[in-house]
Amino acid sequence: MKYLIFIVFTLASFSAYAQENSPEGKETEVTHKWRVSIPYIVPDEIIYGYGKRTSIQMVELHVKRKLDNKNIVGVKFATWRLFQPMGITWWDGVVDKIESGSDYYDGYLRETGIGVSYQRMLWKGLFASVEVLPQIQTYTDLDGEKIKNGFKLYNSLHLGYHAAFGKKKRFFIEPQVHINQWMFDNNSPEGFKEFDDKYGNVFLFEPNIYFGFNF
């Protein structure tokens, strides 16, 4: 509950900040009101990793609308497949556990949802954003047979840099770091639960790069 209260207050604060008026008599032209973007991992997974045991089969798409040159709201669609708990952190040895095959689920967890985002430009290309993504979970065995369903509310805070390039600055990249947190993820079946209970519901300092197009 404390995480939910934190998210609500964060969204409310961002919303209130976004409503501040520009100085009287001054209006800034909004260029490229719409943008779409995907994380770098999407084409990498589709081209190289989709059939692997460790593939997360991720698809993620963001569609955003600029309210002005500081405030951006958006819709996020994402689906991915987990083969081990999301809460295994860097200091838990997440990379080593992937390579060694330890702490793998006895199957897969598919999570799919549509959520919302708010992005605030802070200084030049520097930005902060928050995303809230409700997800339907589907637990399956290794052969893809469904075991049961669940629900997760996946939230993330981002700090990054927006760099546009090309003619008319249509294309952009956004290197960033995330803090991820989730709740209501408590319906895991046997073969999953022992690993979920072993780790927390926060993943700190996830690096990422998004590629996008302004229009």
Automatic annotation (TrEMBL):
Signal peptide region: 1-18
Keywords on record: Signal
Protein name: DUF3575 domain-containing protein
